[in-house]
Amino acid sequence: MSSKLEEARKIINEVDSQMAELFVKRMKAAEMVYEHKKEFGLPILDEKREAIVIERNSLLVENEVYKGYYIDFLKHLMSLSRAYQYRMQSGLKVAYSGVEGAFAHIAAGRIFPESSRLSYSDFKAAYSAVEKGECDVAVLPIENSYAGEVGQTMDLIFSGNLHINGIYELEVRQNLLGIKGADAKDIKKVASHPQALSQCRDYLEMRGYETEEMSNTALAAKLVSDKGDKSYGAIASMETAELYGLEVIEKNINKSGENTTRFAVLSKVCANSPALSSTVLMLSVKHEAGSLANAINIIGQHGYNMTALRSRPMRKNSWQYYFYVEIDGTVETENGKKMIGELNKVCDILKIVGTFAPHTEI
């Protein structure tokens, strides 16, 4: 055996030994990262963060040929870390409102794929489950592009103590489902949530179907599955079809293709991550002329772009309102703290609800 080969193998053995120690050290750090994400209700995959790490660390390798392989190595290493974190995530408890197959159930599964999803009867029960420590996070809808804001969730966030640590967009695609062997000509009556029926009104009228309202789309699918009748159809998601053993007779029957629901991830603690670059504020202003305008002006004067402003009536105060505000940027800066200080002077109530990454599709 040549001395050069022996020398090479000796170097490889030494490096492999060092890498094994460093690998264990890195995986322990991945555990710490996961514990942080679990505490703050953050998803495991953070594409922006991974891209920053790869770009930064690739600069450590000067040889351009080696650099390409090193980037592949980093990507694989990150994939292993995520796989390990997903394994740890199996103990994460996620509250949602509805039944299996409902869009909230689907959203929770896409945000936290290896978690335990726990169903609650309504939004308040799911929210309270996190407050009481029964669950780690709650995934609740806050807005639909077709029907507007979800007022009940807004009210819970305003009156409660949980923080928004993520807002995710789920495109809602409605489909006509039926039992195996059924086709569109067999269907006579279609069951679904009133909103889904409304979204698909043109299609239903074209087909001449009768309709039956249900409390959610998943229960409609279960009804059709239980009946086993070819004349009954349901409007729901493809995931729901799989769950209840139904066939997708026709896809994407929505009136509008622009049908997206935004879901908020809520937890007891407020996250602070570079990936979370937008902020949610909730406020009520003094019952004086120009108070809301003053608050809006303060936000603009500090260079923040306001991307959403919605009003909701305050239950305990007739004819008074609170406001939900989304702004680009975080308030954990000197400028942001000055803005918050000025807002406090014109607001009766001011809550920094949390931060999120804008336009995160799931």
Q: What would your notes on this structure say?
A:
The chain has 362 residues and is an alpha/beta fold. The chain starts with a helix and ends with a strand. 43% of the residues lie in helices and 26% in strands.
Largest sheet: 7 strands, mixed
Distance between the termini: 56 Å
**Rg calculated over all Cα atoms:** 25 Å
Shape: flat
Question: Residue-averaged pLDDT, rounded?
Answer: 87
Number of helical stretches of at least 4 residues: 12
Q: What is the beta-strand fraction? A: 25-35%
Strand tally is: 16
Element pattern in H and E: HHHEHEHEEHEEEHHEHEHEEEHEEHEE
Uncertain runs? none
Decide which structural class fits the backbone: alpha/beta
Helix content: 40-55%
Offer a few descriptive terms:
seven-stranded mixed sheet; alpha/beta; five-stranded mixed sheet; flat; 362 residues
